[in-house]
Each structure stands twice: as structure tokens, then as C-alpha cells.
Design goal:
There is one protein chain. By secondary structure, the chain is α+β, with helices and mostly antiparallel strands. The chain folds into three domains: 3-75, no CATH class; 87-194, no CATH class; 217-427, Intergrase catalytic core (hpI Integrase, Chain A), CATH 1.10.443. It is built from 17 helices and eleven strands. The chain has helices at residues 59-75, 87-96, 103-121, 131-141, 154-162, 175-194, 221-230, 242-251, 258-267, 271-275, 320-340, 361-375, 384-397, 400-407, 412-419, 424-436, 492-495, and strands at residues 3-12, 18-20, 33-40, 49-56, 217-218, 238-239, 282-283, 288-291, 293-298, 301-306, 314-317. Strands 2-1-3-4 form a four-stranded antiparallel sheet. A three-stranded antiparallel sheet has the order 7-8-11, with no helix packed on it. A two-stranded parallel sheet has the order 5-6. A hairpin with a 5-residue loop joins strand 1 (3-12) and strand 2. Helix 3 (103-121) packs antiparallel against helix 5 (154-162) and helix 9 packs across helix 13 (384-397). The longest helix is centred in the middle third of the chain and has 21 residues, at 320-340. The protein is elongated, with a radius of gyration of 34 Å. It starts with a strand and ends with a helix. GO terms for molecular function: DNA binding. Residues 485-496 have a biased composition (Basic and acidic residues).
Length: 496
């Protein structure tokens, strides 16, 4: 199968005609681009058909792409590129074909397409998309919200122009966000491979940092001091100590949404699950709530739907204090219903506005943030109360599976790795318990003198005695238990 590579540029002569591969400047480094051309399988009428590849920055890249095309033809796996199909057009077709997505998932995909994938890569032909293009996109995404030396690259400018002019749009993107965008790209490109629009997924070998959620950390006194000094949170997820959590709940006990804060802090429901909780799913006699529905915010709309996963649908037992809080919430709603009469909006939800209508998820989180600031306690997010509930339950029960079931996790791995935090007093108790396992005749003070020579007359009282080659009074390299120092050894560093 024939194929070749060549270099050309867009320079023009005095008559306005392109030099192409005849440009006298092509010998200069960085001038022009490399292209490939090869004989594709003949058309149905037997006519010769040639395809081109490129542009590429180096001859090596062009040679590699040409070799891939020729090899695909010889193996019978060659796909003729759709010359007019751009990445942007394909992504639109791909998302339109995802008819079974949840509203929140569709909204997330659309955001990834509108803010990153379409402005960053949309102008490219799908057949020309390479792993280096994806890597360049993610590198530009890491520059958002940061100071850039010199003028931003065209790619970064396109990303910035696609973002709304709000403070949130200028925030630095986390590795986890970039990984989610990459996951969306991978899903779209995998579908393109299945539909034989491209031969391979160019994102398969793109390497990104793990982006895994880190373990939640407890707000210890030391971490609070560092936060006050630097203004930086030690981790994305931070957990109050039981004392801090109690202080907060006492401070906000008169807040209209106190029952919501209480339920999340003690039983670990997600925000969407708590806002989707109906009275028909609360059994006060059996002291349980059954999580069946989630209410999420998609843009400005509130959408009710299924829980996050199959295991998220679950029944959670209630402690006595939470049971009483929910009973008080029911009495309060009954009083409001009587006061408002026909103006009451009968949603059947446990947590509502004063007129019975559904709460706005983002407004709930913003209200919580304001209460935390007023409390003077170190900052946590509403979702961090879920981490708190997990840590409290695991501390009380030492049962990881029970804790995982309460949270609605598919396995205990995510519960153990991310959600359960160890409180300081538990760590101290564990340290003392471990040390107590070692029997000691006496405990020397920490500043006690450490012998550096063998006891005269042998190691009486010390298990094991002297070694076969040791003599009484022979010095050692370090303290007792270290290797003996040769008798004829003199260090220049010691003797001067």
C-alpha cells in the first residue's frame, strides 16, 4: 500500500499563489506542517482513492499516523474518515442520542461540552483528533483562574470566552473536575468507535492525576490554628469533632431548617435525598426513614428523580433524638398548614419552605454556609455533615458494613477510604492500648541516660547477655542494643 509524507506551509508568492511544498523557508525549524498521503481502498467503481493526514508538527508524528493508516488497511480494519464531521458536531449528535440519561447527568454532560470540549476541540475533524489535543485541552483547563505569563494561548482564550463572567467561573479547576470532563470525552469517543466513525479512542492513553477524593480530615486544634493563619482548608472534606458539631447544632437549634441539619449530621443523608424525603417514607412508629427519591437542581430547575444508585435507595434507622426532631417538624408543618389554609402548598415533603413548597437545593447549601460563618466554627460544607455522620456511626459501632449501608454505598471501600475519619481521642486510646501490650519491668523517663558500653562483668539483668565477641566495658556505636565498636577503632572526628 503506497503512502508518503511531505512538508508544506501557507506562504504565498507575489501572485498570491501558495508555495506549498516549494516554500524556501521550509528548512527553518518550526516553519510549515507535515502531512501524510496514502492510497485508501478503491471505491466501488474501482477508481483510485487517496486520503491525506495532518497537519502534524513533526515528521515523526506524520510517519506514525501514516503507518497506522496503512496497517489498518492491511488488517481490514480501516475506516474512511468522514471529512466534514467535526468534534463539535459529533458531540452534539452523541448527546442527543443519550435518551435515557437522568436530567442531572444530562446537565453535567452539557456543561462539559459547552464549557470545555466544544470550545477547546470542536473545530477539529473527529478523524484528526489525537491524544495530544486532549492533553493540550486539560493543560489549558489547569490555567483557568491562575495568573498566566504573557498572552493566553488561543485554546485558553476560547475556554475563557465560553465561561460566564462570574466569580465561580474564574475558580481554579480541580483535578477531579478535569477527570470528569475526560470521562465525558471518553464516553463520547468510545461510542464513536462502536459506530465506526473512528478506529481507536484517542483518549485511551491520556494520563491524568488520580483525582480521587481524599479522606476527610478532622478539625483538630492544630489544623484550626493553621487555617486561621493561612486561610487554607487542610482538605476539601473537613469534619467537625463531636464537640464542635454539638456546639453548632445548639447554636442553630432555632433555625427553620434545623431538622434538616440534624438529620444529615446524625444519619448521613445526601442533600438531594433529604430534600426528596416525603412523609409517606417516614415511619415514626418503627423509627425509620426510607430513601426513595432525590431532588436535584439542574440549572434553575428542581428535578425529582431516582436516587443516585440502586444501593442509595435504603431504609435508615432513627435514634431517639432524631425521632423527636422529626415529630416536632411534623407538628410545625401542621400548624403552618392551619394558618395558611388554601395557600398551603401540599408537596408532602418533610423539609419545605414556610408555605409548604419545595426548597431550592443551592439555597439550602448557601443558608448552611452562612450559619457556619456566624457560628465562628471552622468551615465545613453541608455534604461534610454526611462525613460526620459516617465517622460518628463507625466510632460508635466499629461496624464498617453497617456504616456503609446507612450511607447507601455500593461497597465498604468508598466508606473506608473517604467517609470515615478518626477522631483524636480514638487515636490516643489506640496508641495507649498498643503500648500497653508490651510488658515492661519499669519505664525510664524520656531523658534517662542511655548506656553506651557493656556493663562491667557482663550484661547481668539484661536478656541475652554479651555477644560471643563482646567483652565487658567495650563501647558500642550507639546505645545499648547497637553493634559493638572495635576496640582498636579511633575516629578522627572524635579524637581530633
Amino acid at each position: 500500500m503506497k503512502g508518503s509524507t511531505h512538508k508544506r506551509c501557507g506562504c504565498r508568492d507575489e501572485d498570491g499563489r501558495q508555495y506549498g511544498s516549494r516554500c524556501p523557508k521550509l528548512g527553518r525549524k518550526g516553519h510549515g506542517k507535515w502531512w501524510g498521503r496514502y492510497d485508501a481502498p478503491r471505491a466501488a467503481d474501482g477508481k483510485r482513492r487517496q486520503e491525506k493526514l495532518g497537519p502534524f508538527d513533526t515528521k515523526a508524528e506524520a510517519d506514525a499516523a501514516l503507518a497506522d493508516a496503512v496497517q489498518a488497511i492491511s488488517r481490514g480494519t480501516y475506516l474512511r474518515p468522514e471529512k466534514d464531521l467535526t468534534v463539535a458536531r459529533y458531540l452534539d449528535e452523541w448527546l442527543a442520542g443519550k435518551t435515557t440519561l437522568k436530567a442531572s447527568t444530562r446537565h453535567g454532560y452539557a456543561q462539559h461540552l459547552n464549557l470545555y470540549l466544544r470550545p477547546g476541540l470542536g473545530h477539529l475533524r473527529l478523524a484528526d483528533l489525537r491524544d495530544v489535543d486532549l492533553e493540550a485541552l486539560y493543560a489549558a483547563m489547569r490555567q483557568i483562574g491562575r495568573t498566566v505569563d504573557g498572552r493566553p494561548s488561543p485554546l485558553l482564550r476560547r475556554l475563557l470566552e465560553a465561561r460566564t463572567d462570574t466569580p465561580a467561573a474564574q475558580r481554579v479547576l480541580s483535578d477531579a473536575t478535569i477527570r470528569r470532563v475526560h470521562a465525558t470525552a471518553m464516553s463520547a469517543l468510545s461510542t464513536a468507535v462502536k459506530r465506526r466513525k473512528i478506529a481507536v479512542n484517542p483518549g485511551e492513553h491520556v494520563e491524568l492525576s488520580s483525582g480521587r477524593a481524599g479522606r476527610a480530615l478532622v478539625w483538630t486544634e492544630h489544623r484550626i490554628e493553621e487555617w486561621r493563619r493561612t486561610g487554607k482548608r487542610p482538605a476539601a472534606a473537613m469534619v467537625w469533632t463531636p464537640e464542635q458539631a454539638g456546639a453548632f447544632l445548639d447554636l442553630v437549634s432555632g433555625d427553620e431548617l434545623y431538622p434538616l441539619w440534624h438529620l444529615v449530621a446524625f444519619r448521613g443523608l445526601r442533600r438531594s435525598e433529604a430534600l426528596g424525603l416525603s412523609w409517606s417514607d417516614v415511619d415514626l412508629d418503627r423509627r425509620t426513614v426510607t430513601v426513595r427519591e432525590a431532588r436535584v437542581q439542574v440549572g434553575r430547575a428542581i428535578v425529582a428523580g431516582d436516587t443516585k444508585s440502586d444501593t442509595s435507595a435504603r431504609t435508615v434507622s432513627l435514634d431517639a433524638s432524631t425521632l423527636e426532631v422529626l415529630r416536632a417538624q411534623r407538628r410545625r408543618q401542621a400548624e403552618l398548614r392551619l394558618q395558611l389554609g388554601s395557600a398551603w402548598v401540599d408537596t408532602g415533603l418533610v423539609f419545605t419552605k414556610a408555605d409548604g413548597s419545595a426548597l431550592v437545593p443551592d439555597s439550602v447549601s448557601q443558608r448552611f454556609d452562612r450559619l457556619v460563618i456566624r457560628s465562628g466554627l471552622p468551615p465545613v460544607r453541608l455534604h461534610d455533615l454526611r462525613h460526620l455522620a459516617a465517622s460518628l456511626t463507625y466510632r460508635a459501632t466499629k461496624d464498617l458494613k453497617l456504616t456503609s449501608q446507612m450511607l447507601g454505598h455500593a461497597s465498604t471501600a468508598i466508606t473506608e477510604q473517604v467517609y470515615t475519619s478518626v477522631f483524636e481521642d480514638v487515636e490516643r486510646e489506640a496508641a495507649e492500648s498498643a503500648a500497653a501490650l508490651v510488658p515492661r519491668a519499669h519505664r525510664a523517663p524520656i531523658d534517662a541516660a542511655v548506656p553506651t558500653s557493656c556493663p562491667p562483668g557482663g550484661a547481668a539483668g539484661l536478656t541475652g547477655g554479651l555477644g560471643a565477641s563482646e567483652t565487658a566495658g567495650q563501647t558500642r556505636w550507639g546505645g545499648w542494643g547497637s553493634n559493638p565498636r572495635p576496640r582498636d577503632y579511633e575516629s578522627h572526628a572524635l579524637t581530633g
